[in-house]
């Protein structure tokens, strides 16, 4: 998954709705059972393998640095438990990755081939003004892909493991329009709470904290300097499991 092809984070929530059943047909007095479309369903080993965090400044290539997998957002970690459960239907070519608690309030829905490839169309959010600046728009693009590798069943604790799931997810927040002035204001707020919006010192401090929470991971990983904030075109990260 290439950051260059990606352009705010789509919410990952919903209810798992999948009717999974075998099918069959009768030929004379003989019942012929079709291939079980749910045979790939089961628990699969998967562990957080890598995390990278990236920035793109105007006129420059992407800068990326490896980061600790503990930085993977909690909403991702809560789904990608080890093992993770995959509810699959090869007839419908769909797969749902859900936590091993089988709590289906959060999940990843993806296309599934009989060969085990997982994919999903890139999700693109609506453009929204950055910091109420209509001249500067922000948009989030999310992409995910993976592969199921089936093996002979083994035990992992109380789980019967059917194989391994490779999975990667990338999220990019991209800016468009005239953003330099607003980004300069964000830089000033990052450095000095009195430069942040707010009618009280407490409100200004809260705004500064939210700005720092957003930019600090990129600054801490060395892919962005505070003085470079006005030059930002996009920020993003990618996590992989296998």
Give a description of the structure.
With 242 residues, the protein is α+β, with helices and mostly antiparallel strands. The chain has a domain at 3-10 and 34-129 and 141-177 and 218-241. Helices cover 16% and strands 43% of the residues. The strands form two sheets. It has a seven-stranded mixed β-barrel. Strands 1-2 form a two-stranded antiparallel sheet. The longest helix is centred in the last third of the chain and has 20 residues, at 201-220. It is elongated and about 65 Å long. It starts with 23 loop residues before the first strand and ends with a strand. The model is unreliable at 1-33 (pLDDT under 50).
């Amino acid at each position: 998954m290439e950051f260059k092809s990606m352009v705010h984070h789509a919410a990952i929530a919903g209810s798992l709705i999948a009717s999974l059943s075998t099918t069959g047909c009768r030929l004379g007095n003989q019942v012929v059972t079709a291939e079980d479309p749910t045979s790939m369903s089961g628990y699969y080993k998967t562990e957080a393998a890598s995390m990278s965090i990236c920035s793109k400044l105007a006129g420059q290539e992407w800068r990326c640095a490896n980061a600790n997998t503990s930085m993977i957002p909690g909403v991702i970690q809560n789904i990608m438990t080890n093992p993770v459960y995959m509810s699959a239907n090869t007839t419908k070519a769909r797969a749902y990755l859900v936590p091993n608690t089988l709590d289906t309030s959060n999940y990843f829905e993806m296309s599934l081939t009989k060969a085990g490839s997982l994919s999903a169309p890139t999700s693109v959010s609506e453009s929204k003004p950055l910091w109420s600046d209509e001249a500067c728009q922000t948009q989030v693009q999310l992409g995910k892909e993976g592969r199921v590798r089936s093996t002979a069943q083994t035990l992992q604790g109380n789980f019967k493991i059917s194989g391994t799931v490779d999975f990667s997810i990338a999220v990019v927040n991209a800016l468009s329009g005239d953003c330099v002035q607003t980004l300069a204001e964000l830089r000033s707020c990052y450095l000095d709470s009195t430069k942040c919006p707010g009618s009280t010192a407490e409100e200004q401090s809260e705004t500064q904290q939210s700005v720092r929470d957003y930019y600090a991971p990129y600054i801490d990983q060395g892919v962005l300097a505070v003085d470079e904030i006005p030059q930002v075109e996009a920020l993003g990260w990618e996590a992989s499991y296998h």
